[in-house]
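Researcher: Please predict.
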Amino acid sequence: MANKQPSSLLFVLITLFLDVMGIGLSNPILPKLINQIVGDISTAAYYFGAITTTYALMLFVFSPVQGALSDQFGRKPVLLLSLFGTGLSYLGLTVAPNLPWLFAAQILNGLTGASFAVAAAYVADISRAENRAQNFGLIGTTLALGWVIGPALGGLLSIWGLRFPFLIAAVVTFLNLIYGLLVVPESHKLEHRRTFSWRAANPINSLGLLRQSAPIFGLAAVIFCADLALQCFISTWVLFTTYKFQWGAFEAGLSLALLGLMTAVVQGGIIRPVVARFGERRTIVAGLSFSLLGYLLFTLPTQGWMMYGVIVLNGFDYAVKPISQSLLSGLVSARQQGAIQGALSSQTALATIVGPLLATNLFGYFISASAPYRLPEIPFILGALLFLLALWLAVTTFSKESLQPPTKD
């Protein structure tokens, strides 16, 4: 693969940063807005799970469509269309007077919000074998920085009202769109393009790409379990800390910002030297082990400040996905990068469908009067079990199969 200019990587990383910062702005706000509308935190948990699942269902269906379209028409036009729809969805959330409006805005967001798959394919286009893991780690770092600034800014902006951060997210997303239109170059070579096919863009068929070999399937399964556990965490974090520690939007945003900071530190400053010394496989196994321990520790704090300490201790968790994604990307040809990244995005969306629906319903039930006993920590227990399964899958995959790159483009 021909070497690309470093500025091309910078362009797409800035695009990703602005995009995820807009998402981060709304993350500590939406559960509280739903709670404000329905007036009960247990009921709000059910509705938040349903809205999150609706968004993820749209993302699941349309992620492979965007990935396949980018394989034929290029990454840039598909990315711009995605950003336009995301900006409109944030405007919808800004003016939403009731739950049906919230559902409609999130449907639009999911329908056009698969830009991460296209951006990952862009990075795969401009990467070589020797820097692929580093570049995918930079994606994680960029997303993490967006999570640092976005939630903190969202919590701060909520001082002017719960809807105000959505307006800022819309403005940031449209600025991102203009930036992409004027600055970001195309990365997908004409000789590597392939004709769009609805059959290939079908999300079920797309997931079939992840079964083309045992190593690819094993790595995809590890990523799925990690994504599912993360969704159990993210979908209930604001609800859990509100219920147990009476945190407001500012505290929730600050904690999510710390989460993003730890992700940035690990993925930006630790992944490269650790992988260089211990290798990708050992690093994945170690990351999964830390994740399992960290989620168990989340069940123990009795005061809110203790949660910040667990977030810091659990930081190595965030090395797992970018390294696994890098290994998997190296197992497919240049012609398949858009499709395989779309398949991974569909798989992540599937985790976003199942995880929040399961975790928020379990949380809502175990804090309700009908529960046999109160167990608000149930989402973290479920996440720990998922990381235990991921650890077994990783060890099994690495012990039985060698991971060899494709011989042809």
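Model: Residues 41-73 form the longest helix (33 residues).
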